[in-house]
Structure formats: structure tokens, C-alpha cells
Write a structure and sequence with these properties.
The protein has about 375 residues and is of the alpha/beta class. The chain has helices spanning about 25-30, 40-55, 70-80, 95-105, 125-135, 155-165, 215-220, 235-240, 255-270, 270-290, 320-330, 355-370; strands at about 10-15, 60-65, 85-90, 110-115, 140-145, 145, 150, 170, 190-195, 205-210, 310, 330-335, 345-350. β6 and β7 (about 150) form a beta hairpin. Bound molecules: pyridoxal-5'-phosphate.
Length: about 375
């Protein structure tokens, strides 16, 4: 067999993730691999945890990246916090909510569904009613930024309601972290997971997570062991925990973690709130341009995600043709609709390093030609 090295084409990633990865991050990943128990590596891990606490705005000691993509962070939260028979209120207003439900069922929990239309935020009143109807519920879970629809929900209020009813909460922040306001401690979030490849604009493959003391108490006092060995936080804590007694659990993806570290250094340089503001500003720029092209948003202005713009495909345009023209003629990738929204919307991502004025302008002029 005669094979050649792989050279990816040059693309501008304006879909639902991954987003464009900055050269600084790519360069960081190309540095020499060292042992995952090397003191220098452990120091880098500690800095990474410190910067993740900054990004999540939390003092939670258990804040770290899981060595796998966002879906593994999701699974870690449900596998550790839900015991067989536990009732979980699952809010569904898009694809990722349906995955939460699937997670609850697979670990033996009982899912109580609160449904909202795709494109709408989670309705806090319905959540409150579900908690009144189910006083034995233990957990409320919802997606902060639904990447399948482009809608943001009021995480602060939803956590407040869950806390008032004595429930823990699990929050999907894969797309919101670093792109939209998110305050883990102030909002009383118990378990949260994110992804490296969206608004942090690092490479795919890592899932930053954070757990409150209440959440830690829950999984350290389980009656049954966590069914996943790899994601059992009782074991993972021994590896990512503090101090010299760090025990081997799995081989950390060393170079991928260099990449996440560099992306977090860049976030601290820019400033978290400035990053939120940049995402908003470029979103407005895109919104104004799209409106001139006669392209309309799926989501009401009040709950639009700046980093994920879901817009109706114009009637005269062919979904697949336009997306392949963007890709082939302009090297721009945008996202298609998922589930019920397939063929109805496009999803234009302005996440992380992609969220820049020149990219907005490129996308607008390419769309103008393609539609
Ligand atoms: C992308 C995404 C995930 C899944 O993350 P992966 O890294 O693809 O596993 C989960 N939830 C939301 C809201 C996402 O946008």
C-alpha cells in the first residue's frame, strides 16, 4: 500500500462546531509529547484547571477537562449523578435535550420530560409545574445554548427553580462557555459540561466539566457504583486531584491538553467578558447583513444565540446546492438543520476564533452569490 500524508483543505468553519482553531493553538499541540505524570505536565494540568475555573466563574475544586468530547462530559454528569430509580426533569427544546433523556434512561433513571418547541427557550413555568407535580424529582437538566436551534435559555432562573425545589441541576454549556454570559457559582449550577471546539475554539476532543460540593456529595455517597468505569468521577478525581499522590487512571491526551491550555491562555488575554461582547458584536453584524439579504431568523430576538445563527433557508434556494457552493467555491462550511429542522434552516456559527468581522463579511458576500 502506498499512502501519502493527509493535508486538509483550507476551510473557514462557520458551522455548529468545530470552529476555526487559531495557529497559536495548533502550534502548541505540535510541541513535544511528555509523560502524563511528568511534573511539568502536572503543572500545566493545574494551570488548565485554574483557567477553567476562570472561564466557568467558579471556585469549584472539581473543575477539569474530561479526556473525550462534549458528549462524554454529558455522559459523565448523568452517569455519576443519577442512580437507578432517580427521577430527573429533562427539558427538551432541541436535539441535545433528547440526548439528555437518553442518558437518564440508560443509567436507570426515570425521565420526566418538559417539552418546548424547537427554536424556543425552555419555559421556566413548565419546569416549575413539573417540579410541583413530581415532588420526588432529584435533578433538573437542561441545555443552556441549544446548538440545534440557536436558542438560549435562562440558566440562572432555571437553576434557581431547581434549587428552590431541593433538586440538583445538570447544565449543558457546550456551546455557551466563553460565548455567552455564564456564571457557575452565582447561578447555583451543580454539574456543568462543555466542549473544547466551540467558543473556546480549540480542537475537538475535550470536555471541560465542573461540579459543586452538593454534586460531589451525591456521587461520593451513591448506593450503587457508577456503571461506567472510565467516567466514574470517584476514580477520575484521583488523577486530576491536587498534590503528589496523583494516581494513574488513563493516559491523558497530552498534546490535546496543550491545545486547550493555549486556548485558555488566549481567553485570559482577551478577558472573558470581552469574549462574550465580541460574540455579540459580530452576531449583530451578521444579523444586519442577513436581513439585507432577506434571510430571517428561526429564533425570537430575545433568545437568540450570538454564536449560532439559525436562519430559514430562502424559499428560492436549494439547501444542499447552496451549502456545497459555499464549501466548493468559497471554502466556507455552514451547518444544516438537524432533526425536524433539516432542510428548513441553516446554522451559521460565529464561535470562538471564527467570530471575527472579516469572517462575517466573507460569509455574507458568499451567501449573496450562492442563494
Ligand atoms: C456539540 C454539542 C454537544 C456534543 O459535543 P461533542 O463534542 O460533539 O461530543 C453537546 N451539547 C451541545 C449543546 C453541543 O452543541
Amino acid at each position: 500500500m502506498k499512502m501519502k500524508s493527509f493535508t486538509p483543505p483550507k476551510r473557514l468553519l462557520m458551522g455548529p462546531g468545530p470552529s476555526d482553531v487559531h495557529t497559536r493553538i495548533l502550534n502548541a499541540m505540535a510541541r513535544q509529547t511528555i509523560g502524563h505524570l511528568d511534573p511539568a505536565f502536572i503543572e500545566m494540568m493545574d494551570e488548565t484547571k485554574q483557567m477553567l475555573k476562570y472561564a466557568f466563574i467558579t471556585e469549584n475544586e472539581l473543575t477539569m477537562p474530561i479526556s473525550a468530547p462534549g458528549s462524554a462530559g454529558m455522559e459523565a454528569c448523568f452517569a455519576n449523578l443519577v442512580e437507578p430509580g432517580d427521577k430527573v426533569i429533562v427539558c427538551i427544546n432541541g436535539v441535545f435535550g433528547t440526548r439528555m433523556k437518553e442518558n437518564v434512561i440508560r443509567v436507570g433513571g426515570v425521565a420526566v420530560i418538559v417539552n418546548d418547541d424547537w427554536g424556543k427557550p425552555v419555559d421556566p413555568e413548565k419546569v416549575e409545574q413539573a417540579l410541583i407535580d413530581n415532588p420526588d424529582a432529584k435533578i433538573v437538566s437542561f441545555v443552556h445554548a441549544e446548538t440545534s436551534t440557536g436558542a438560549i435559555s435562562d440558566a440562572k432562573l432555571l437553576c434557581e427553580i431547581a434549587n428552590k425545589h431541593g433538586c440538583l441541576n445538570i447544565v449543558d454549556a457546550v456551546t455557551s462557555l466563553a460565548g455567552s454570559e455564564l456564571r457557575v457559582d452565582d447561578w447555583g449550577i451543580d454539574a456543568i459540561y462543555s466542549g473544547s471546539q466551540k467558543c473556546l475554539s480549540a480542537m475537538p476532543g475535550l470536555s471541560p466539566v465542573s461540579f459543586s460540593d452538593r454534586a460531589i456529595h451525591k456521587f461520593t455517597h451513591r448506593k450503587t457504583p457508577v456503571t461506567s468505569w472510565f467516567l466514574d468521577l470517584n476514580l477520575v478525581m484521583g488523577y486530576w486531584g491536587k498534590g503528589a499522590k496523583r494516581a494513574y487512571h488513563h493516559t491523558a491526551p497530552v498534546n490535546t491538553l496543550y491545545g486547550l491550555h493555549e486556548s485558555l491562555v488566549m481567553l485570559t488575554e482577551e478577558g472573558l467578558e470581552n469574549s462574550w461582547a465580541r460574540h455579540k458584536k459580530n452576531h449583530k453584524h451578521l444579523r444586519d447583513g442577513l436581513s439585507k439579504l432577506g434571510i430571517h431568523y428561526l429564533v425570537d430576538e430575545s433568545s437568540r444565540l450570538p454564536q449560532l445563527n439559525s436562519v430559514f433557508i430562502p424559499e428560492e434556494s436549494d439547501d444542499a446546492k447552496v451549502r456545497s457552493s459555499l464549501m466548493n467555491d468559497f471554502n466556507i462550511e455552514i451547518g444544516s438543520g438537524l432533526g425536524d429542522l433539516a432542510g428548513i434552516i441553516w446554522r451559521i456559527g460565529l464561535m470562538g476564533h471564527t467570530s471575527r468581522k472579516e469572517n462575517v463579511e466573507l460569509c455574507l458576500s458568499a451567501l449573496q452569490e450562492a442563494i
